[in-house]
Design brief:
Blueprint lengths: L2 E6 L3 H11 L4 E7 L5 H9 L2 E3 L3 H5 L5 E4 L6 H10 L3 E4 L7 H6 L1 H5 L5 E3 L7 H11 L6 E9 L6 H6 L3 H4 L2 H11 L2 E9 L3 H5 L5 E8 L4 E7 L7 E8 L3 E4 L8 E2 L7 E2 L6 H4 L1 H17 L7 H20 L3 E2 L2
Parallel strand pairs: 1-2, 1-4, 2-3, 4-5, 5-6, 7-10
Antiparallel strand pairs: 7-11, 8-9, 8-15, 9-10, 11-12, 13-14
């Protein structure tokens, strides 16, 4: 079966998904939708697909089996519900919304969705992180005691973007919240510390760095360290400490070459400097998991509930960082 897929949103993430779909042997990119300018036409032309500036045309198109939603966050729920009503499977980018009030307003409709729905928490599918999770599940380090997630960007986005992004916890840390749940399950307490080193981001009332601690009901703690700017590049690491050992997933570089001389020992090249390079495999595997689930009639590995819980953690972290107090989720 060849799964026909439409992409909504012809921006950066739309290009990533369109390219991956077009190269997948079990899928075909059939339609690209974007209401702004000629973005849809340009992206569609790269892969021999049709295009439209009318997003609603995607839901009415009988030649579309599934929809990848890469539209602006406030449109995620409306587009997801429209696709589901039309009987089309959905892969939706995170976060599900910018505010839990929007989720609660649509909760009754979300609860009735019966088509396959998967959310784009691609880091679960990163080969290194997935291997670490598998080894933990296999008991290689005994019982998990604490988890460390480090996620730092090479450079901060423009303040104008930050202003409408929902804040660092919804825009950046949302991936890390999902990773924490992937390892720890449901979280019962959140304590966040926001930091300001970037005056432009401070001026739009957001943080550009943060440290978050999350605790599950068994007392296992995850620590998340975020920064919008890292001079060393895109810093993405994971460490799991268990009762009998430790598992580490380190940064990825363009090559494995190391230099030792009179000035340095074991000097390596810089980290990859952009998320599209660092998580290229993760995006490919994520889409393959989605296509396989839809084609085989199995449950996708991430769900609407995963997206809701990640947003709930983001809101709790925002509250904690503003008040200086931990937030209980029980």
């Amino acid at each position: 079966m060849m799964l026909t897929i439409a992409v909504i949103g012809a921006g950066r993430i739309g290009h990533v998904h369109a390219k991956t779909i077009a190269s997948h042997p079990g899928a075909a990119l059939t339609l690209v939708a974007d209401p702004f300018g000629d973005a849809a036409e340009k992206l569609a032309s790269l892969h021999g697909a049709r295009f439209t500036t009318d997003v609603d045309a995607v839901f009415a198109d009988e030649g579309v089996d599934a929809v990848v939603i890469g539209s602006p966050t406030p449109l995620h729920i409306p587009h997801l519900l429209a696709a589901a009503k039309a009987g089309k499977a959905v892969l939706c980018e995170k976060p599900i919304a910018l505010d839990m009030k929007d989720v609660e307003a649509a909760r009754a409709q979300l609860d009735t969705v019966s088509v396959p729905v998967m959310f784009g928490f691609n880091r679960r599918f990163d080969p290194s992180f997935a291997a670490l999770h598998s080894q933990l599940e296999a008991g290689r380090i005994g019982d998990l005691e604490n988890l460390l997630i480090i996620s730092r960007d090479p450079s901060a986005p423009p303040a104008e973007y930050v202003k409408v992004s929902g804040g660092i916890f919804r825009d950046m840390t949302i991936h890390d919240f999902d990773m924490a749940r992937f390892f720890l399950g449901d979280i019962v307490e959140v304590h966040a510390y926001g930091q300001n080193f970037n005056e432009e981001i401070k001026a739009v009332d957001d943080f550009d760095a943060a440290v978050v601690t999350l605790k599950n009901s068994a007392g296992i703690v995850a620590t998340i360290i975020n920064n919008r700017q890292c001079s060393a590049g895109y810093d993405q690491r994971l460490e799991a400490q268990g009762s009998t050992g430790t598992l580490n997933a380190d940064n990825i570089r363009a090559t494995t070459v190391r230099l030792s001389n009179a000035e340095a020992t074991d000097s390596a090249g810089p980290y990859l400097d952009f998320f599209l390079q660092r998580y290229a495999d993760a995006y490919r595997i994520e889409l393959t998991e989605f296509i396989d689930a839809v084609t085989n009639g199995t449950t996708p590995p991430t769900s609407i509930e995963d997206a809701i819980e990640a947003l709930r953690l983001a809101e709790a972290a925002t509250e904690s960082a503003r008040t200086g107090k931990p937030v209980s989720l029980t």
